[in-house]
Amino acid sequence: MAPEFARARHIADKAAHAAVLVFFVTFLAFPFYWMMITTFKTNQDLYNTQNNPYLFNSPPTLRHLSVLFEDTQYLQWLLNTGFVGVVVVIITLLLAVPAGYALARMTGAWAQTLGVAIFLTYLVPPTILFIPFSRIIAMLGLQDSVWSLILVYPSFTVPFCTWLLMGFFKAIPRDLEEAAMIDGLSRFGAFVKVVVPISIAGMLTAVIFAFTLVTQEFVYGVTFITASSSYTVSVGVPTFLVRGDVYFWGSMMAACLIASVPIAIIYNFFVTRFVTDFTMGAIK
């Protein structure tokens, strides 16, 4: 009787595990499915409440993609978003990596206090900062330029990534650096040749977070830029595809799908190292 009970329990455990897995996969994949099916649905199919919203009730259409690419500057917005994201990520790493390392190796009560203070600057809402920032942008003559975003975005990516990387650097034993310095390396040489290679996964985590924060930012983009050719995706899509009380749902979903799929692929490609190293950084 005992073996049969153990077998039944094993089958029940596997079934429960599979059910939980299916639930979460469905839950996480549903937004992408909804964006995809809305992209190719006709307006009559979308707005008819008698139709099944999860299936094609009419033949698919490419009309929404045509509106997106022909009636808006969506490709230019994608290029602007990619350019701003890459430059901001580079600036963020150049500032956050040495800052995070310095805070991780600093001794005394001030180290933890400075780390918390830097993170708290990330929590300041953009609605408070965009007015003084707009004055600075005007003084520098950067209105209607993507360089205004490149100047401002590090104000929230650098504090967050500094705090994040500080946790990763604290997880690296000091003994490794001391051994490298005994072998003749300087402090900077030990950092470059020992600490940086070990911290690649943590830096990748910071890159993903920084790029994601940049691509979804709206307040600064709509404040500093009025020329449509300089918009990013997060500003251009709602500005041109929401006209009064008319929402171009199909085109909006197409724009969101195209912009989100590359980021989703990057997340899933590095998901194992991303989750493991992020957890380690947060705990340490």
UniProtKB/TrEMBL annotation:
It is a multi-pass membrane protein. The keyword Membrane applies. It comes from the Bacteria. The chain crosses the membrane at residues 15-36, 77-104, 116-140, 146-169, 190-212, 218-241, 248-270. InterPro entries: BP-dep_ABC_trans_perm (IPR050901), MetI-like (IPR000515), MetI-like_sf (IPR035906). Residues 78-270 form the ABC transmembrane type-1 domain. One of its GO terms (biological process) is transmembrane transport. CDD domains: TM_PBP2 (cd06261). Keywords: Cell membrane, Membrane, Transmembrane, Transmembrane helix, Transport. GO terms for cellular component: plasma membrane. It is found in: Cell membrane. The keyword Membrane applies. PROSITE patterns: ABC_TM1. SUPFAM superfamilies: MetI-like. PANTHER family: INNER MEMBRANE ABC TRANSPORTER PERMEASE PROTEIN YCJP, MALTOSE TRANSPORT SYSTEM PERMEASE-RELATED. Belongs to the binding-protein-dependent transport system permease family. This is Carbohydrate ABC transporter membrane protein 2, CUT1 family. The lineage of its organism: Bacteria, Pseudomonadati, Pseudomonadota, Alphaproteobacteria, Hyphomicrobiales.
